[in-house]
Specification:
Helix content is 44%, strand content 11%. By secondary structure, the protein is of the alpha/beta class. Helix 1 packs parallel to helix 2 and helix 2 packs parallel to helix 3. The longest helix has 29 residues.
Length: 195
């Protein structure tokens, strides 16, 4: 749909491959960090592999890709915007989500530090924090009607988010319409956090 976009397919957990691929791309003015994994395990059953994979993709990759892109923006002397896709799970404990909630909370704080340090370079950094989104991953993790009903009953708008709900929020934060917004988390949760 967007002929000017050239996708790069790589494992973001591979630090060196990411450095080479993203470093060779650009120039950048905008960045959306959206890659994530959600390995759901009860706290007492969390495995080392699940923790390491989640930290690699949900946190380390965001830090690394953002460093590469922000350095290029600063070198070019252009203003920019970065949006990190977080989750309502960064702010509310969810059963079997110990690792996911923790990595998303860490992502929110990383984004605030990025906003503080990159602001003087005219680079804005914000997060979008959706509820469950009906992506392939969302359908896999929330296909059990009993589990999904319990969550939907806590959402005042009574439904999970669609992809467009999140995309439109990201587009707002990337645009000049949010020129004075940085270090913020935009909740796209149907009111989950107020219930």
């Amino acid at each position: 749909q967007c002929p000017g976009i050239e996708p790069l397919c790589l494992d973001l957990a591979d630090w060196d491959a990411t450095e080479a691929a993203v470093g060779a791309a650009g120039p950048f003015e905008l960045l959306v960090n959206n890659a994530a994994v959600a390995v759901l395990q009860p706290f007492l059953e969390v495995t080392r592999e699940a923790l390491e994979r989640s930290l690699d993709v949900n946190l380390r990759a965001v830090l690394h890709v953002s460093q590469i892109v922000a350095r290029q923006m600063i070198a070019q002397g252009v203003p920019g915007a970065i949006v990190n896709v977080s989750s309502q799970a960064s702010q509310r404990a969810l059963r079997d989500h110990a690792v996911y909630c923790s990595t998303k909370s860490a992502l929110d704080m990383l984004s605030k530090v990025m906003a503080m340090e990159l602001g003087p370079h005219k680079i804005r950094v914000n997060t979008v924090n959706p509820t469950v989104v009906m992506t392939d991953m969302g359908r896999i993790n929330w296909s059990d009607p009993q589990k999904s009903a319990a969550m939907i009953n806590r959402i005042p708008l009574g439904k999970f988010a669609e992809v467009d709900d999140v995309v439109n929020s990201i587009l707002f934060l990337l645009s000049d319409k949010s020129a004075m917004t940085t270090g913020s988390s935009l909740m796209v949760d149907g009111g989950f956090l107020v219930s």
